[in-house]
Design brief:
Blueprint (H helix, E strand, L loop, with lengths): L28 H4 L18 H5 L5 E3 L1 H9 L1 H9 L10 H19 L5 H10 L4 H16 L12 E13 L2 E14 L5 E7 L8 H16 L5 E9 L5 E5 L3 H20 L19 H4 L1
Parallel strand pairs: 1-3, 4-5
Antiparallel strand pairs: 2-3, 3-4, 5-6
Helix pairs in contact: 3-4, 5-7, 8-9
Amino acid sequence: KGSSKPAFYTKDFPNFILKKEILEENINPAKDTIKLPKIQKSSLPQNFTSLKEITNLKTTHKFSFSKLNTYKVCPHKFLLKYKMGYPSLSSQNKGSQIGKIVHKLIYNSLVFNQILSNEEINILLKEYNVDEDRKVAILNAYNNFKTCKFSPQNLVNREFSAEYNFNFIYNLCEKNIEFTGDIDLLVKNDDNSFSIVDFKTNANIEKEKDIYYSQLYLYKKAIESQGFIVQSAEILSLNKHGNIDSFYLKNDEKIKLEFEEDLKNAINCFENEINLEKIKKTEKCKNCEYNYICL
């Protein structure tokens, strides 16, 4: 008490494999706590980091959802970034910075089982030179998280993993594609099934539902590949207007067809020569980190 720096603490829950120590007061919580290893619990799905060796499968491509979505948004950028290896110009728009910071706040809250105070948040924001507009948006989004059904107080005595890392093989047309990624929140339910949650901070969630359905489908397959049942996969929007919106993955078969069509096209784009001149430029191009090549 009396210290100018906030003290993070953790609370013991059943089945913790990794225990956390109370941070020393000389540690900068906004900087150092983010780097701590993730909490994993014994009955949560364990990531198969050696899946290739276990199954003896030869993978033909490596993908993440971000990589696949890059193709869907712009095949030109996909080739420049992932095939040709061109460097990108540093570009961080407002939405990107807000999203990254809110996710760090959520991760700290879940790992340390506590709601962060404004003082703690302000310490983090100082490191990013956040302007007033973004600061308001970040605080609004985090306040929405504090009242949602997946806030720390609503996960008491429940098993979960924040930023759960996965690695699995997706078979498509006799090709073994290795997917890696991180799920914002994986929660174990009373019936031993799992709920997948991904937090979003953009205000235009309705316009990008198709993209997010594909993301939820991939996450669901990642957990099911380990033999677990997924009860629900949900996008929870904590947008900057102070409202909470959410939607669930429902029609698996329809989303599967769209996901696999995008994946086939992305692989075809990667493996074959594509005439980049035929790719139509849009308004988004001017904010792209590769526009120094294209425009």
